[in-house]
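User: Sequence recovery, please. Input:
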């Protein structure tokens, strides 16, 4: 199971793809609109999963 991370951990995600999952890279400026829509949906999905885990971790620290 991979751990979700924010964009700052992209290097770790590259080194350990089975353990760390970073958000998808942003498409180039000339990408078609459907590619941008797919990227946005994937980014929101990964962010939603990561935020749930971060909130659960924060409860233990309080």
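Assistant: Recovered sequence (62 residues):
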């Amino acid at each position: 199971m991979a751990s979700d991370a924010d964009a700052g951990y992209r290097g770790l995600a590259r080194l350990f793809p089975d353990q760390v999952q970073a958000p998808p890279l942003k498409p180039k400026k000339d990408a078609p609109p459907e590619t941008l829509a797919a990227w946005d949906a994937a980014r929101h999905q990964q962010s939603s999963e990561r935020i749930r885990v971060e909130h659960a971790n924060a409860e233990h620290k309080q």
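Helices lie at 10-15, 33-61.
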